[in-house]
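If your schedule permits, I should be very grateful for your opinion on a structural question. Please examine both parts with care and let me know of anything in them that strikes you as inconsistent. The record follows directly beneath this note:
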Amino acid sequence: MSGLSQFRLLTLHYGFYQLAAALAGGFVGAYLLKLGFSLPTALLAYAALLTCRFGLRLVALSAARRLGFRTTIMLGAGLAAAQFLPLMKAGEPLWFAVWLLIVSLAESLYWPVYHAAAAVTGGEGSRGRELGIRTAVGALVGVLGPLAGGFLLERFGPTVDFGIAAALALASVLPLTALRAIPAGPVPSLRESVRAIDRAGILTFAADGWMASGLAMAWPMVLFGSLGSHYESFGIANAAAGVAGAAAGLVCGHAIDRGERDRCLALVCLALALGFALRACASWSPLAATIANATGAAIAGFYTPVVMSTVYDQAKRSGAAYRFHFAAEAGWDAGAVAGCLAAAAVAAVTVAPSLSLLPAALGVAAVYWCVRGQAAPAPRSLPVADAVTAG
């Protein structure tokens, strides 16, 4: 099976998986607020989830070694579908803990393998275009998902919405069954997973995780409150943002393939800084918050291909893409946990909830420093001892 076919299968899977996330997962923060969580408490819940995910990476390492990459990513996607039953009862401490554990395990299994597969199935000459397509697919399902999710939650409640999302997550497993073995290199031992760390990759992911604490965790809850805590209004605002993100992703992907990554990076980081400022000042008005949300999605459509094209190229050149992303994902968790704690602290002491995004803005400078000039081949990776190759 050709690399292009692998890319198409992975993109088809990604579309279904992200549709499930947009239909229900994108409403998790809003749902927690509806259950009675305050913004600081919900951010602490996210920090707890990410801490648990970080700890469960040892389980993921063992699963990848014993089951192989393809089975591991299928298991992670399947477990993600199981999160919605306990989420419906997350107002009770026991069920909240069960939900947290399932999501943590599912994501610790899924994301390192997914990123490793994306790194090795794409070509460096077309990396920008492929990431632009993936970003556009994610943004387009980010139009349908929020519209449908907001309507279903408002009119029929979480049972129907979460049930459909679970079915979509299970459907996303089907394209993965057609993938051939994923050549993501050897699965490292625990010792080598710590010793053979690509510092540039892990710092890039840590900075991205720190920013995500504001943009992907705090901001959706701020937006939900600004829109009167109505699921449908929240869904419509995110759908409009999805259109902006889709267009931006395609434009930026082609620019990267023309060798303009560093130029795009400077513009994206400037836009990110302005986007943070706009969102931090937008919670006073539903219209202002909606405009800030759409603007931020367009910026993200440029940001994702720029950063991930760099990371995927480094991972592929390392010859051990899974080991690279295993460490990098741990860095993302650490950055996101720290960012959630900082955001929760700000939210607890300020009157305007949108100010909780300000700590995450510090990640812009870190991302620029980590990604700038990284188009050159990465340094030779360290050898992996006591490792086996997973298929």
User: Anything to note?
Assistant: The beta strands are 186-187, 388-389. DSSP finds 17 helices and two strands in the chain. The CA atoms of residues 245 and 298 lie 4 Å apart. The radius of gyration is 19 Å.
